[in-house]
Fold each of these.
Amino acid sequence: MSQLPNCPQCGSEYTYEDRGLFVCPECGHEWSEAQSVEQESGLVVKDANGNLLQDGDSVTVIKDLKVKGASGPIKQGTKVKNIRLVEGDHNIDCKIDGFGAMSLKSEFVKKN
Ligand SMILES: [Zn+2]
């Protein structure tokens, strides 16, 4: 079974297939498979175990991470919900309780 792509318009993961088109229930966008392959060739982000990560995934931090300006590190085992993948060295945008908006490196997390 092939995995459905996220909506290229709003990034929703709750897409489904309907008569050869992909449909996004959140913004109503419809698109064909050919387009989605193009979209998907962009960003490939893998966790510490080599699993592919997607927008909206939940991950766990696998080592203590120092944070500039914070009183303590982000502890190993911290759960992070609803990540967003971005380009660059720190390729995960997320919010962590007690720290606020953060950028993490995908090599320091694993998919839940
Ligand atoms: Zn959408």
Amino acid sequence: MTLVDGNALAGALTELLGPDPTVTVLRCAGCGSLGPVALAAVYRTAMGSVARCRDCDTVLVTVVDAGEQRWVALPGTRAVLEPVPE
Ligand SMILES: [Zn+2]
């Protein structure tokens, strides 16, 4: 297992959250803290990645690569902050 930061999830989350998902702000369901995806603690394995809150270790995002399919979940994310277009 390799520990990297949330920038490692950029490719997997681009289609889900927009052209630069690493700046997307998530609210942690465990402790309520707010932070961009880029600052999450991401643990990588051969099967995929798990992003954890740096404040309380709650699992914010999981990315599992299963053959030609990719499963993305936000199990510990209470909300995703969506910027209001100007
Ligand atoms: Zn937290």
